[in-house]
TrEMBL record:
The gene is myom1a. This is Myomesin 1a (Skelemin). Keywords: Cytoplasm, Immunoglobulin domain, Muscle protein, Repeat, Thick filament. It comes from the Eukaryota. The keyword Repeat applies. It comes from Lates calcarifer.
Amino acid sequence: MSGSLQVVQKQQKQQQQQHQVQVKQQHHHHQLQVKQQHHHHQLQVKQQQQHYESSYYLGTKSSVSKQSFEAFKTTSRRLKTSVKTEKGQEVVKLSPLPKRAKRTYLAMDTDKEIIGYVIPVFRANHDVVRGLMESQEDVTEEGINYVAMRNLFVREAREALDVKVVKKTRSTHIRESAERMELSRTMDEWAEFRKKMNPDSLTHPPEFIVKPRGQTVWEGKTVKLHCTVAGWPKPRVAWYKNNVLIDAKAHPEKYTVESNYNMHSLEIKNCDFLDTARYHVSSLNVKGEASSVAAIVVKRFQEGEEPGPLDPKPHGFCPEHGVTFETTIIDKFEVAFGREGETMSLGCTVIVYPTVKKYQPEVVWYRNSVPLKPSKWVRTHWSGERATLTLVHLNKEDEGMYTLRVNTKSGFDTYSAYVFVRDADVEVEGVPVAPLDVRCHDANKDYVVVTWKQPAVEGSSSILGYYIDRCEVGTHHWAQCNENPVKYARFPVTGLVEGRSYIFRVRALNMAGVSRPSRVSEPVVAMDPSDRARLRAGPSAPWTGMIKFTEEDPTVGVVPGEPTDVVVTEATKSYVVLAWKPPVQRGHEGVMYYIEKCISGTDTWQRVNTGMPVKSPRFALFDLAEGKSYSFRVRCCNSAGVGEPSESTGEITVGDKLDLPSAPGSPVATRNTDTSVVVFWAASKDVKHLVGYYIECSVVGTDVWMPCNNKPVKQTRFVCHGLTTGTNYVFRVKAVNAAGYSQSSSNSDAVVVQAAISVPGKATGVTLLEAVKDYMVLTWTAPANNGGADIRGYFVDYRTVKGNVVGKWHEMNHQALTTTSYKAENLKENVFYQFQVRAMNMAGVSKASLPSASLECKEWTITVPGAPVGLHVLEVRDTSVVVLWEPPAFDGRTPVNGYYLDIKEASAGEEGWKAVHEKANKMKYMKVTGLKAGTSYVFHVRAQNLAGVGKPSAVLGPILAQTRPGTKEIYVDVDDNGVISMIFECSEMKEGSEFVWSKNYKAMTDTSRLTIINEKGKSRAIFNNPSLEDLGTFSCVVTNTDGISSSYTLTEEGLKRLLDISHDHKFPVIPFKNEMAMELLEKGCVRFWCQVEKCTSACDVEYVFNDVIITQGKKYTMNFNKSTGIIEMFMDSLEVTDEGTFTFNLVDGKAKGTTSLVLIGDEFRALQKKSEFERAEWVRKQGPHFVEYLDFTVTQECDVLLKCKIGNVRPETEITWSKDSIEITEEDEDAKKISRQDGELTFNIGKITKKDAGIYEVFLMDDRGKDKSTYSLTDAEFQGVMNELFRVIANSSSEIQVLSTEHGIVLYSTVTYCHEDLRVGWLHKDAKIAASERVKSGVTGDQLWLKINEPTEKDKGKYTMDIFDGKDGVKRVFELSGKAWEEAFEEFQRLKAAAIAERNRARVVGGLPDVVAIQEGKSLNLTGNVWGEPVPEVSWTKNDKELVSDEHYKLKFEHGKFASITIAAVTTADSGKYALLVKNKYGTEAGEFTVSVYNPEDEESKEEKRD
């Protein structure tokens, strides 16, 4: 028991000694008091509620008794003293506590160093599950806050004991001993009573005595799971299917749950294959929770190969409903293409027959065989007839094979199609597209591993790496997790806050820039995996909100043990991830961890996370040297201290452990459909952890590669859709894993996109047309799918039928039939036969059709006609369809005089047939209207003669009422010459496709009425002489397509309308290319004009103003250029009387045209003022004037020029400049700045300063007039000039260059000119650089520089020079990293070393002459000054031979600076070339001099000889 509990019990014992008599006499009464105290305790609990913040979520308030709470109000340090009692026993006495001692939340190690914060480990929302414990109200419970606080302050929870030493007499001692013995006996009795009354001594957690066993049963049987559970209080038992709670009350027809005398069972009735699952049984009471698992496998009788999980199963009988459900999926979605950010819907119509009231099938959607769950990205809907899947905001993660599975009680059917998701357009050309499939793994309290998949398109250059961003759920702030891009598609994110939820995204980087971010990951909570597992268990183990302790906790205050199994889970050149198991001995307060590393070859262990211990048993280490080896170990810590280290991991070398995959094998491309190709390839041989493959295609003759899939696929076969029909493609494949992309495979052979030829589909509708004694006439319907090639013929098989016994199939014809009918001869009368048909094309023979009904060979005697044949449809649209048929082969007693067409929705029963029309239709076609779009229909036709109506034909359909995408209708065109024609266009023409026109769905025999012209995908049917004979329905069918057709019905009213249009085209209205418009000309003259499309030379114009014809004269001037079609009218000026409407009326033979312009009101008055202004401007320009007024410009040399253009000047025109109203004369210095060239005046201010501000004026004047131009170069105008100057300077700046010096690295940029007011800022990693002694910026001449003295690794990164250009600024960026950093830093170190070497190089600094002449016999003493650091080595040479100090030569080197040589009694032999050699590690230098020894006597004799 903890120290705090001991203190509480001692206080209770003191109180019991005072009331021991009352305890004996009122035993039961005391029990009542205990209950009252317990009730009082609960009241105190409510008053002392504390609130703790959970790392996972905020728990509700929990209580703790006032007495227990006060026991924890202690200081962090207390003194212990030992006092001896009378019996010699030592009692520990604690120093008294201060009244207002604060609780500490700091955890310390054994050296009293703060290592972190203690966080309560027990947190939960108690109110959520409080109802579970209603039957256990009498159980004494300790609040959860009590437990948390006890673990939090276990080192401080010591209650002071006041021990008093009193000297007692022997009688007193004996009396007290007797009292103690009596009290001990009373307390023993009381303990026994409490033990009996305390239910906590009887409770124990649930335990499975008998566990449920897994079973395998046949479909349709009943299975029962049994288990026996012991535990007190009585556990509650719940059953789960695949972790989903089973609600037996909601499904009594399926499940029955029983619980009797701790025996529990789950009965599953009428098992089907959907009941195959893992069943969990969970047992729970206040003491704990236990669970067990059993698997149920439901088998079915089936022959042949076992199908896959999504393969259609044969339908079986459903005994529950007494029927066999048949499922048909129609209106299927096709292969779909979407783009990121769009919304896509997929849907199918599902028909389940028969229809059972209140029964609906189960509809499940899959992506790549994985069931989809509704989310913010995925929405499903089942209307009872149509299943729809909506993909909101498409991303590449949504690409894949989508499958609709319809489950019924008789089995299931499926349908699948692929969905491709193309990348959204990139914002910057050349950047990569977004990564995909961002996932979180191995989440812990402050750590998670983020993985992703590389995109299919890298952009204009290879991907350099990725940036990982995180965002706390509930906020919109994204923070970048890594400073430098990571190449590996897996990254550990650290520094998470425990209990908070995060989402992540990834961006790719290449030389062109950064991609858009990927789709965000699913939210992940930073929490302990064990807590996450407990929370995921959900209802199987609900949190009770309370913890019970009945024994002492021996782990409180104990230093945790050693972690175990420390391993390196991931190792790349960027980081290393460690993982370990927590220690067994760690207490209830939780532990944290320190990580230590040791470099290989040393015995020194360094603590990696010195600032704060980590909470998760995972840690990522960065900034390790690539190629070096390290060892790692882990220590645990808690409030009691730091534990012993774990075992070392052994030496781990830093580097990538995963290599790039090898290139896949050469792909093989084969034809598939008109828009798809199947690509096969050999898997990469050398690859680990394969993510998948990307397939790319390129049109032959180009070098543009396009991705076929934007989500990697793992299989080695892929169908590339969305290709252009008839185009030649080549393909290549590349593999990808977390390390990156492999090399692309070699290109496949070129393949043309065309539909692959296959055998045709089955023929349908084998029926009997006529029967005689020994032969029968058969007919059938051609296959809907001809396999991509024309049907070459048919083969008919027959067999006899006797009762229920059928014979073997025999061939009837050995040569292929070219028609869809056949006369089966040499049959036996009154014998029943069955027939089947096979179709043949160039690829082979199809499968046999379904056998016909049993047909008896006997002569027909019926009077009604037979069934019509050859039913087919044309012109299928959303609300209509045209049904065509052929007459029956057997007319009956009288000829056929009409037909009836019946229709039914495909999903309806036989009672759903209804007639399309009431009266018999004599035509062999009918257009059915009023259909529901998206609904499927079936049809049949009945023939009629005078005897009655015959049997219906074979059913046609189901036909989906849906307009084919891209379908075009026949339209009527009337050209400029009045020619009427019908036009039909088709964009899906194939080789051999033709346009076939018909009238009233019959081949056209009279070709004189129409002229057909076909051009590529367009056909024109021209009416040669439109008349009432052409009335009818004209249709056009495109052969060798999927039924592309259209029709146009020409009625009498329509023909009349077309003839009127034709007449208008033959005699058209004169078209205007430009309606009448007005413009002002020089002198304020007004021009009205228009232009006609075309006209003849006979065209005439009538000019009208306010309904009055006007003619050419003084006020009006007209002109009509018939070659250009331009009509003009000029007016010298606008007067008040000219307000009104101007009109041009044109007549060209029978054609007429009119155009008008209204000038009234404010519009007219504004035009009149503008005309007067233009006239005044013209007057001004008659004399000298300014063509362009005075304005400024800044040259590339940063000179400011004031310019203006003048016109109409003469030599005598005076031009005067002034500044601030002071004329600039020829004597002024500013006169040199004025120049004139080709009508342009320039004032060259040069390099502008504030003294150049002012008002500049230019005057022009001669005898014709004068003009003036002013420019105010002050205030805002002056600042505008400066901003333009700054812009020119900023744009003239060169790219940043790097220069290394002996002091550091210099980044500089040159400009044309630098102004003193120009603002230049430098940034490092987008942060402004503060000036310091080490980093300085400045300007020298035309050079802007940043000097970094003594650079370090921290100085690496992106540098930005921001030059103010008057607006946003011009930025020059230089990335000082990689090779640039290495070269610059290496050059700096070289120059620095050279400078140091030059400063410290050994050299002779003086003291030695060049030549010494000395008389023989004298002594020579020379001293040379020497310098060098370190002190150089000194030696002397004579004639290149080193001298040794002896009696003759005395060599000295004193104080490291002075080297001397003394030659005693020189002789002529001492003459020669001497040198003082100095040498240290930085260099060598020699101080040379010449010694010449002469003899005076010899010199005299030489002189005498000369004389």
